[in-house]
């Protein structure tokens, strides 16, 4: 068993049932995540999804880490990021049978996305039926203009280097 918490600092913390901190994660993508507002996993806890105040969805692969959290080779990898809403994501869940992520926002919209690619299927209340079989159509909601991004690098905490800039005028330089 594992507990996950999402924080205003964009940090995700994974805890043991005993209350010990096992891992801290920060989004690696180029998109600003902002405070995290929603969190869910699939039934088998292989995928961790987070939603942000900025409307982004981040998809993490946690399967190998949960198999053996002590093995340093088994890292959690951020696999996918996409802008789902122009405003804050308030809830999300993944439906494994159809491979669909459902997101809800404070703007009142509920949208469907392909779980593996972040492709947009549509929104609840639309006139046309959802076509969940066609993931080749690259369409976006009217208020979002960023396509999904597959994350190829590994998430590493960046350490800030301390640089000293003395306020001394050097005429020779």
Short descriptors:
globular, WD repeat, Beta-prop_IP5PC_F, single chain, mainly beta, 1 helix, Methylamine Dehydrogenase, Chain H, WD40_repeat_dom_sf, about 170 residues, WDR64 protein, WD40/YVTN_repeat-like_dom_sf, four-stranded antiparallel β-sheet, five-stranded antiparallel β-sheet
CATH domain class: Mainly Beta
Helix content: under 10%
The CATH level-2 architecture is identified as 7 Propeller
| CATH domain topology | Methylamine Dehydrogenase, Chain H
Fraction in beta strands: 35-45%
The number of domains: 1
Offer a concise description of the structure.
By secondary structure, this protein is mostly beta strands. Helices cover 3% and strands 37% of the residues. The longest helix is centred in the middle third of the chain and has 5 residues, at 63-67.
Could you describe the 3D structure shown?
This protein is mainly beta. It has one domain (about 1-150): 7 Propeller (Methylamine Dehydrogenase, Chain H), CATH 2.130.10.10. About 5% of the residues lie in helices and about 35% in strands. The strands form three sheets. A five-stranded antiparallel beta sheet has the order 4-5-6-7-12. It has a four-stranded antiparallel beta sheet with strand order 8-9-10-11, with no helix packed on it. The chain has a three-stranded antiparallel beta sheet with strand order 1-2-3, with no helix packed on it. Strand 10 (about 110-115) and strand 11 (about 120-125) form a beta hairpin. About 25% of the residues are buried.
């Amino acid at each position: 068993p594992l507990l996950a918490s999402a924080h205003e600092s964009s940090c995700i913390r994974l805890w043991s049932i005993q209350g010990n901190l096992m891992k801290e994660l920060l989004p690696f993508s180029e998109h600003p995540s902002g405070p995290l507002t929603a969190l869910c996993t699939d039934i088998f806890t292989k995928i961790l999804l987070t939603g942000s105040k900025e409307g982004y969805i981040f998809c993490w692969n946690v399967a190998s880490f949960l198999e053996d959290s002590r093995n340093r080779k088994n890292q959690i990898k951020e696999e996918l990021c996409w802008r789902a809403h122009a405003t804050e994501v308030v809830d999300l869940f993944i439906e494994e049978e159809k491979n669909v992520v459902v997101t809800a926002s404070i703007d009142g919209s509920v949208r469907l996305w392909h779980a593996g690619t972040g492709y947009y299927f549509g929104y609840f209340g639309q006139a046309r039926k959802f076509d969940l079989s066609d993931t080749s159509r690259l369409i976006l909601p009217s208020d979002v203009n960023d396509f999904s991004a597959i994350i190829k690098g590994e998430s590493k905490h960046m350490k800030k280097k301390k640089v000293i800039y003395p306020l001394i005028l050097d005429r020779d330089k």
